[in-house]
Amino acid sequence: MSLLYLLHYDFMRYALISGLLLGPTCALLGVFVNLRGMAFFSDALAHAALTGVALGFLINAWTGWNLDPSVYVLFFSCLLALGMGWLSHRTPLARDTITALTFTGSVAIGVILISLLGKHRLLESLLFGSIYANGPDDIVRQTLLALAVALFFLLQLRAFTLATLDPELARARGVRTALLHYLFSLLVAAAVTVGLNMLGALLLSALIVMPAAAARVVTHSFRGLLLGALLLGLFAPPLGIALSATLNLPTGPAIVLIHVVAFAVCQIRHLATHRTNGIPIITPSQHQLLPPKENTYET
Questions:
Q1: pLDDT means over runs of 10, the chain (299 residues)
Q2: CA-to-CA distance for 25 and 9, rounded, in angstroms?
Q3: Rounded to whole angstroms, how far apart are CA atoms 227 and 117?
Q4: List of E strands, the chain
Q5: Dihedral sign (CA 75, 178, 289, 262)
Q6: What phi, psi does 214 have (nearest 5°)?
Q7: What's the rounded Cα separation, in Å, for the pair 188 and 182?
Q8: Cα dihedral 194/196/201/207 (nearest 10)
Q9: Are 181 and 85 in contact (CB under 8 A)?
Q10: How many C-beta neighbours within 10 Å does residue 273 have?
Q11: Which domains can be identified in the chain, with CATH numbers?
């Protein structure tokens, strides 16, 4: 069955619209997730959705409410994001330690609650997602998320970039770095909640992390990093959907596969360019001796 024929169906059109909205939005967030060392943070929030959904079912059962589980996921993810941000500022623990603690704890609680509720099939949909399950309401939520992210960066791009690359200088210039960090964490939590249907908890962080990671390999300017990540985020979901429809593959993994191939191509180009120019390739052990890569970007 051809891709053009499938476009006659609403579920395929919604899937493409969803990919075109979430891809660039998550990629833009992913630029700063990478620069701020928060890749594991987005993965932890995605897996914490298990607990948010389970709590939603429990609260609906106790109160008689009939709220969409995504409301509870959003609330729990935002609360968790704020909690991790608060702990990183108020305790001597490293950020990755805090993320690991909240990640494992929330997943354990979520799995236990889902098991007690007897909704074992819910685990599969949460872990793997289905972009074809998107409907008009999901498209509205994704559009609102894209607008919120765009508004945040339109208003705060320079200040947030400075707070990311040189927090001490940003504070000296009066930038409220802690507030910006909390707002950014909330946007990542909202992106995780809204994008859960697309790739599921296991693969969603790839949509955030991988476009910026691939662009960062081949560019040496901050503007190039932003543009490269946005382009990869824009084209990878439609290509993944097309690959899935053509070869009858699972759609979520197909989208991630496109990102993996893009990263591999960027890395090969990077290695080939360095060898051609006679520049030594930095190994991971040598890289630790260099200044942080964030400081090499032009703002």
A1: 72 92 95 90 84 86 83 89 86 85 86 80 75 89 95 95 93 93 93 86 88 91 93 94 89 92 92 66 38 42
A2: 25
A3: 45
A4: none
A5: positive
A6: -65, -45
A7: 10
A8: -70
A9: yes
A10: 11
A11: 3-296 (1.10.3470.10)
